[in-house]
Write a structure and sequence with these properties.
Blueprint (H helix, E strand, L loop, with lengths): L13 E2 L7 E3 L2 E4 L2 E4 L1 E5 L2 E5 L13 H5 L6 E5 L9 H9 L3 E5 L1 H13 L4 E5 L4
Parallel strand pairs: 7-8, 7-9
Antiparallel strand pairs: 1-6, 2-3, 3-4, 5-6, 5-9
């Protein structure tokens, strides 16, 4: 909560729930009758704004929230932008060690796959790089 005289306080973007992604493109995503500009991370605790802008930004630190919720995630879909880009072997190994299978794919394919697996009530999470 902002104290008197602090002005505008910007909070981290977070939607507390698991909902399908309705649309993507133009640098962002739409879900739950809202929109978010930039990349997102969708885990069991909700949908979060995510600082990653390129595949090079996807590392263990960027996936910290995924690792925190590993017990509730079987598969992580990694939306790598316009095209499929493999994730580094060491990151894939760290995810596997945490009990999470990772599947990199284009952001569009990741959105579609996430929505299907979510509708089947599967233990799925996704990280999605925004595309134009």
């Amino acid at each position: 909560m902002a104290k008197r005289g602090e002005g505008i306080v910007i909070r981290d973007a977070h939607f507390p729930g698991r909902v399908p992604i309705d649309a993507y493109g133009e640098g962002g995503f739409r879900f739950a009758e809202m929109s978010h500009r930039g990349s997102i991370l969708c885990v069991p605790s909700g949908i979060y704004g995510w600082d990653a802008r390129a595949v090079a930004d996807i590392d263990a630190a960027a996936l910290d929230r995924v690792f925190q919720e590993a017990g509730d995630i079987e598969v992580l879909l990694v939306g790598t932008g316009e095209t499929l880009v493999p994730i580094p072997a060491d990151l894939k190994a760290a995810l596997r060690e945490a009990g999470i299978r990772s599947d990199p794919m284009s952001t569009g394919a990741a959105v579609r796959t996430y929505n299907v697996l979510l509708s089947e009530d599967r233990a799925v999470a996704t990280v999605l790089l925004a595309v134009d």
